[in-house]
Design a protein that fits this description.
The chain is of the alpha/beta class and about 325 residues long. It contains 13 helices and twelve strands. The strands form two sheets. Strands 5-2-1-6-7-8-11-12 form an eight-stranded mixed β-sheet, with helices on both faces. It has a four-stranded mixed β-sheet with strand order 4-3-10-9.
């Protein structure tokens, strides 16, 4: 199978590694120094949990040809870069596109791509991979790889779903199918944004986070899910609220969040991304605030955490640390 991975951040590189090891013909679109590193040294990934380093040779390009057809295109970039990348993908003749990553406006992405090419079929996915790029390699953390994937709303065509399944056949990659990825992605923001606020509040040094702040992340997530439900989204209480309200699942979540904060796992899974993707987190925060303004529902815990790591603080953090967006 001929696969394009548009974007060579941590998630895209891990996806390229999985598919190339499965014998797929993988092309990675990257730019700048990272493109040169991939061409010279290959795709080098350090897997701390697996105690190994892998090196894969993949085809690398710096631009997407209009007439080259791929069986699948995975667009794996930060949300803030999506608006400038979608027209490039829309001009290409490939029909099947999976947009992977945070996206609070899945419907908008569908409108752009479908407006450019009505034949295109678009799916959305989220892969739970954390890490960072450093010294010509990727440091990637994951405990079993997989993707939550599906249409913006409704079901993918049988052909599209089978094509995705075929892509991962023979791997240990798990696919979890959803019929409303628009709601799923918005609900995901209800958890990651409070976590980001805490990251910025402690200067992206999570061991400084207090136990109260860790608990507040889950309280704020519950407020966020309730707000999204008030918008009419299909936010499942069984899959979300039960992890944030008192009970066995909440206790497990509290332990997990606290362990993540106090160990290097938190750096790889959360604070590294917050440090490298300030502009993306600002854009996600602004999108979520627009949804909040439509409901007027009080969210006191959310507001308290947001005041600690509000966008102004994020911008100041980026300037002070000399940080910037992770490029393609």
């Amino acid at each position: 199978m001929k696969i394009l991975i548009y974007g060579a951040g941590v998630v895209g590189c891990e996806l390229a590694h999985i598919l190339s090891r499965a014998g797929r013909h993988v092309t990675v679109l990257a730019r700048g120094e990272w493109k040169e590193s991939l061409e010279k040294n290959g795709l080098v990934i350090r897997h701390p949990l697996q105690l190994c380093t892998t090196v894969d040779r993949v085809n690398v390009i710096g631009a997407l040809p209009k007439h080259e057809i791929f069986e699948l295109i995975f667009v794996v970039i930060q949300y803030g870069q999506l608006q400038e990348v979608l027209p490039d993908v829309g001009k290409n003749r490939s029909r099947h596109v999976v947009l992977v990553g945070n996206d609070p406006d899945a419907e908008g992405a569908v409108r752009i791509l479908s407006g450019m090419d009505p034949r295109k079929e678009i799916a959305f996915g989220f892969q739970n991979t954390g890490g960072r790029r450093e010294g010509g390699k990727v440091v990637s953390i994951h405990a079993g790889l997989g993707m939550t994937v599906g249409a913006c709303r409704g079901h993918l065509s049988t052909e599209f779903q089978k094509r995705i399944q075929k892509t991962f056949r023979g791997t240990k990659y798990r696919l979890t199918w959803e019929t409303d990825m628009d709601a799923w992605l918005k609900c995901h923001l209800a958890l990651i944004l409070p976590a980001a606020y805490v990251c910025y509040a402690v200067d992206c040094h999570l061991p400084r986070a207090t136990k109260a702040q860790c608990k507040a992340i889950l309280d704020a997530a519950l407020e966020g899910c309730k707000m999204l439900r008030a918008l009419g989204l299909s936010v499942s209480a069984a899959e979300n609220d039960e992890y944030y309200t008192p009970g066995r699942k909440r206790r497990r979540m509290e332990i997990m969040v606290y362990i993540m904060a106090k160990t290097p796992l938190g750096r790889l899974a959360a604070s590294d991304h917050c440090r490298a993707a300030v502009s993306e987190m600002e854009a996600l925060d602004a999108a979520f605030e627009r949804y909040r303004s439509e409901t007027g529902i009080p969210m006191p815990v959310w507001d308290e955490l947001r005041s600690l790591g509000k966008p102004g603080v994020m911008g100041a953090f980026q300037l002070e640390k000399g940080g910037g967006n992770e490029v393609l």
